[in-house]
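hi support,

uploading two proteins for the ticket. first:
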Amino acid sequence: MIRSVLHPYDSGFTPWMSSRMDQRFLLSLYVPESLCPASKSQLLVLVHGSSRWDWLRQSFRDFSEKTGTILLAPLFPVLNSDGSDVNAYKWMHSHGFRYDLLLLDMIEQAASIWDIDFDRFALFGFSGGGQFAHRFLYLHPERLSAVSIGAPGNVSLPDQNRDWPAGVKNIEEHFGMKFDADAVCAVPIHLVIGDADTETWEISKQPEDPIYISGVNDQNTNRIERINRLRNELSLLGSIPVIDYVKGASHQGELLAPSVISWLETVIAKEDCRLAG
C-alpha cells in the first residue's frame, strides 16, 4: 500500500471518491484481499453504460480475488441539469472535458493510495462504456495491456480516410495525438455481444450526424452488425480481435461478464497469492 496508514475502507468495495481533477466526477474501486504485497497490483478499469448502473465491480469481484487484480470504476455523471445528455463521455471530449485524460488522472490518483501498476492496465466497457473503450484504444494504445469492448451502440472505425468520430483521419486536430495503427494492433482486443442484441431504437443515426456511416451506424443496423464491422476493420488494420457471441443474451451486460473474464484470464498474467502462499 502507498497510503502510510490503512483506512477501514481501503479494501473491498471502496467509498466513492471525488476526482482530484474535477470533483463532479467520481471513482470507486474493489481492492481484493488477495493482493500480493511483493509486487504492484494489476488494474482493470470498468466503464459503465448510459444508465450508470454499477453492476460491474460485483460481476468481476471473484476475478479480482482470484488474480489479485484491483478494479477501478469511474463515474461520469450527466452534467446537464435536465439530464438530457447521457452520451458526453463516450466521445472522449465534450463540455470542455477530455474524458480520456480524466480517466488517466483517476488512475494516478488511485495509485497514490494503492500500489498499482498504472503504466498499463486492462479496460472493459459495456454499451456506452464499449464506445468509450474502443475510442480510448485509438488514443492511448500504449497504456492498455488488454481491452474488451462490449456491445457498443455506435462505433468509430479505425479508418484513416474517415473524419472523427466516424473514423480516425483527423484525431490529431481533436486530441493532439496521431493514430498509431501498429500500437493499436499490439493490444489484445476482445469484442463481446449477446446474440439477441438486435434492438435499434436507441442507436440510429441520421445522415447529418458526424458518426453516420451508411451500413454501419445508420437506422438499419443493430449492435451485432456494428460490432462485426468494427471487428472487420480492426482485422484489416492488422489486429487479430477475438469476438464472442453470448447465447440468449440481449443488451444485458451481466450476461457478458463471464465471457470477458474467460478471455481476460487468457491474456493477463495472474498473481494468486493464496495459491503462492
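and the second one:
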Amino acid sequence: MRVADNWQDYELIDSSCGERLERWGNITLIRPDPQVIWNTPKKNSLWPNADAIYHRSKSGGGNWEIKKKIPDYWTIAYRDLIFNIKTMGFKHTGIFPEQAVNWDMISDLIKKSSRPVKVLNLFAYTGAGTISALKAGASVVHVDASKGMTLWAKENAISSGVADRPVRWIVDDCIKFVQREIRRGNKYDIIIMDPPSYGRGPGGEVWKLENEIYSFVESCSQLLSDDPMMFLINSYTTGLSPSVMEYILASVIKPRFNGIVEGSEIGLRTSENNLVLPCGASSIWTK
C-alpha cells in the first residue's frame, strides 16, 4: 500500500464504528467511512469534541451537525499546494488527502523531464492533480462535468499561485471530450483520471464504471504522445481492485509502449494507533 505520510495540515486521528476522526487544519471533523468496520474504543478526547459531524441518512445522503462555529471555507496546505476546504452536502470536503501520493508522483515525474509536458486530467474534480502538475511546470487540460467543481478548481489554482499557468478549464462529459480530442489529433504525455463509480454528464449521459472503463482507457490511449510518461487510473469503486486496473493498463498501454504497470491501494496512517486505513486504489503505467 502507498501511504500519504507527508501531511502537516491534515491528520487522520482515529477511526472506529464506521467513522473517521480527522483534523483539517485547525478544524476537527467526523465523517462516515464504509471501510471502517471495526469497533475499537473511541479513546481520543476529540471524538466527543469535534467541530462538526456528518450524519448519513438511511434514505441516502445526510447532513452536517455543526457543533462549534466553523468558517464557510478555510484553506489547508500540502507542500506548496493550497486547497480551499468546506463541508459539502455529501460528507466531502473538496479533496481526498490520500491522493497526495499521486500528486507527488505526478510532480516528481514532470520535474525530472527535460522537455515540455502536456497533461490531461479527466474527472478532475477540484483540481488537486491539475494544480500539482501546473506547479511542477506542465501544461494541463482539466476536464470535469461539474461547473461548480471546475470553479472550485480555479479557486484552488488561485490560492496555489498557478492561475496564470498554461491550463484549459473544460466543463464537459469526459467521454465526449476524449472522442473530440481523438478527432482533433491532440496528444498528451500524461493522462490521469479519477472516474466515479456512477454518474451523469451535463447532457444526462450515464456513466457506470465497470461497463465503461476498459473501452474508455482504449480511447484515451489514442491521445498518448509518441513518447508518453504516465497513465494513471484512480478508483474508489469497491469492485474495481488495483489488480483489475493493472490488468487493463497492462493489456491496453503496455503492448504499445512497454514500460511498467503497478497497482496498489492508497491509504492514510491513523495517528492514534499507527495503523493504515485503505482509502482507494490506483494503477499506474510509467515509461
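thanks. also noticed: The chain has a mean pLDDT of 94.
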